[in-house]
Amino acid sequence: MTIPTATGTSEPESSPLLHIPGAGAFVVDYEGCPADRSKSGGWRSAFFIIGVEVTERFAFTGISSNLITYLTGSLGQSKARAAENVNTWNGVSAISPLLGAFIADSYLGRYRTVVIASLLYILGLGLLTLSAVLPSISSLWFQEILFFFSLYLVAVALGGHKPCVLAFGADQFDGQDSEESKSKSSFFNWWALGVISGPTVALLFLNYIQDNLSWGLGFGIPCISMVIALVVFLIGTRTYRYTIKSQEKNPFFRIGKVFAKAARNWQASSSVILVEMEAQGTLPDENSQQFRFLYKALLTPVGSKGGGECRVGDVEDAKAILSLVPIWVSCLVYAIIYAQCSTLFTEQGATMDRSIWPGFDIPPASLLLFVTFSIIFFIPIYDRLFVPFTRALTGKPSGITTLQRIGIGLLMSIVVMIIAALVETKRRETALEFGLVDKPEETVPMSFWWLVPQYILLGIADVFTLTGLQELFYDQVPNELRSAGISLYLSIIGVGSFLSSFLIFIIDEATGGGGWFSDNLNRAHLDYFYWLLAGLSTVALVSYLYFTKTYIYRRGSVNIRRNFGN
User: Fold this and answer.
1) What are the sequence ranges of the domains in the chain?
2) Residue 9 binned pLDDT confidence (cut-offs 50, 70, 90)
3) pTM
4) Which residues cross the membrane (predicted)?
């Protein structure tokens, strides 16, 4: 079997290979032969890849959703320290895809990166399982060292797995074919639905096993799940389409050179640039005037030996990436809110009445099920009802633009935090009313159902914002940097987790370690923190609207200016 590398060779003289415009890339099957649409790619391949992600998400959620419980219980950490550790690990997990994407897009290719990352993932989960059964045979400090080493090995493995699986799945659809282009757009919606199915099963069963049976078993099952994921991925090998790139330049070097040369020529006037571009017959169109300073990279210094020139296409690719930066920054507060689901929301739920029926209490971490259920319920509604309805109103194939989709989710996140703050205020008042302020071990007589609206609304917001972001960051980057685009989207979640950890640390220090984040939540003020996040979210939404007003969509060789309100 021959699997093409990321760099590959140039196109044969006579070949029906599918060509990706602007990327110097061609699509082949697993033997390196021209890809046949009837025998490779499309949904036949996507189902394998979605199946891989479902099992991987099951494994990851089985670890992450109940991590704070393990830290505060088995490892004896305080609630504030445990929340910081969870946020830091979540941050590393979401930022590590930047490294994985670089390796995949520059050297190994997506297929090989997924296989290697899966093997590391399995090793990390295996060691994590071992650390959970060590207390009876070793000291706590050794257990803790092995635990965190294993945990961060999983984070590194995730960096190679996460961006490449999604990008590889989207690669199975030809954006230049009208039918497959429609399927690709739908793929992102159904990908989100499939991905949430794994966490649903984990939250239903694994959290109960971890809380009531054994942490060793609770960590061992995710390890087995990742073995299954790797097997499923390998089974689909013969059906996949692989991308060969004839362009020998490293795409990161090629685009990085644009920024370097533009900085070197920063004193050059615009008129000089336009004169040289006109002489070369490479004047950009009117819609291409955004970030015009980057065209200074096209100037060739007198006496240059050549070989290091930038092309207009390189500049346009650099502009495409730069134009995503304001969007990336504007969505960081949303990621901070997203981080609360598996930390502070869980801690809230742990203090409340979680009985479903006599003798059975839902585990606190399983409250995340309401997020997953709302996503599972809403995605088909979005894809089959919302899109056709809005399409009839706007005339746009997707109903609303990707930026509008993201913005709606950002608006909903503000509502989520307002509701969360009001519910937390009610929970504290109930604790005071029943004399439980100084009895944190007692259950506050307030049903966990009060928390359900904030979970459900956050799930619906995810359908808008997170799914919109992954489509935007896949579609709007150069073709050979699709893994990097997905990693940039994932890094929003990572940096948001770091910012959440930083905010908690700063506020905890400022309030003397017993203020907003006291170990006794009945004396803490999570409601203040939620109001703060609601305010920050409002500022973030305003900045998002400002930056998206003049954003230019780049699809193939066409640049389209879209106003957020259109």
Assistant:
1) 42-245+325-475+477-561, 251-318
2) very low
3) 0.75
4) 114-134, 140-158, 188-209, 215-236, 321-345, 365-382, 403-423, 455-474, 486-508, 528-547
